[in-house]
Amino acid sequence: MSQQIEQKTLGTPNSDVFFPELYFFLYLNVPLSLCGIIANCINIIVFSKQGLNTSVNLNLFSLAVADLGSLSSLFLESLSFKPALERAGIAYLTTELFYASSVTLRFLFARIAWWITTFISFERCLCVTLPLHIKQVLTTKRTILAHAVITASIITAVSPFLVARPLGSKLIPSINTTLIGLFYTENGPYIERIAFCFNAILQFTSYILNIIFTAVIILQLNLNSRWRQNLSSLKDRSKRDKKLAKMVGCICSIFIVCAMPSCVNFMMSVLQVSGFSGWDRSFLTFREIIMTLEAINSTINIIVYYNMSSNYKEAFFSIFCLKDKPSST
Fold first, then answer.
1. How many structural domains compose the chain?
2. 329 part of a folded domain
3. Least crowded by CB within 10 Å, which of 20, 23, 81, 121?
4. Is residue 56 part of a domain?
5. What is the pLDDT of residue 89?
6. In the predicted model, is pLDDT for residue 151 greater than 90?
7. How many CA atoms lie within 13 A of 298 on its CB side?
8. What's the whole-model pTM score?
9. Is the dihedral of CA 314, 294, 254, 118 positive or negative?
10. What is the pLDDT of residues 6-40, one digit of tens each?
């Protein structure tokens, strides 16, 4: 009984909690994350080809790197969640460390991607509200600095989880052996609780700011497009604004839909809603849905870029030496 409680407390997968509905998400996440890894590698190559001398390309390049890290961690996490590994005696150590490390990395990269997406929305918001001053406000150096601050802040926010559950020797009764594994420190649960609440605040803040900035972008672009339609010299620019508004709206809709369950999960966990803590069945199922949606959000960007950006499509065809190059629009 004590062993079961210890495993559940440490957040290690246990064969008793593998319900049939979880297998769909577990085995869906493996091919989905693989597709996302390939897609984001392509994105990184394309944006590098275009050049990282603009804030737009820097933002999208950094987002692709963060998504690549998140999907790679999800791939490892899904593999380490197999019941066969946990049942394999000595593999207990491998499963616990492998799973815990991949979960931490996925959480880290996913939150970095969230805040980079928020920064992209913020930059686009400034572009449509202060078009004459945006180049002076957001230079490439300031964009790099912003990304560095985001990364450092998320690492700082996640590090208390590692402090609360460090590596150490622990007795595994099932195999009667002492191995190196994860264990709670004396104040570990308290530290983890505070860190969890702080990360929940960061997540909600990023989500809400993203919605606000994107709403301002769409409204402002619609207003500008109506005004420019009355001026024949600005009709071409009006078409580009409509295309940009459509692209921003598409990305925003995907992000909002895919990120909403994660926010709901954090809220229920912080409020300690029954059935949404530990390794309860509803919590695990909801968690796998969140992981799948996050993978979709990180993977589908390549489709948006390819269909809505002629520059991306041109660079894509140039890199992969495809015969039928797209016409510039």
1. 1
2. no
3. 20
4. yes
5. 44
6. yes
7. 38
8. 0.82
9. negative
10. 333 344 444 444 555 566 666 788 899 999 999 99
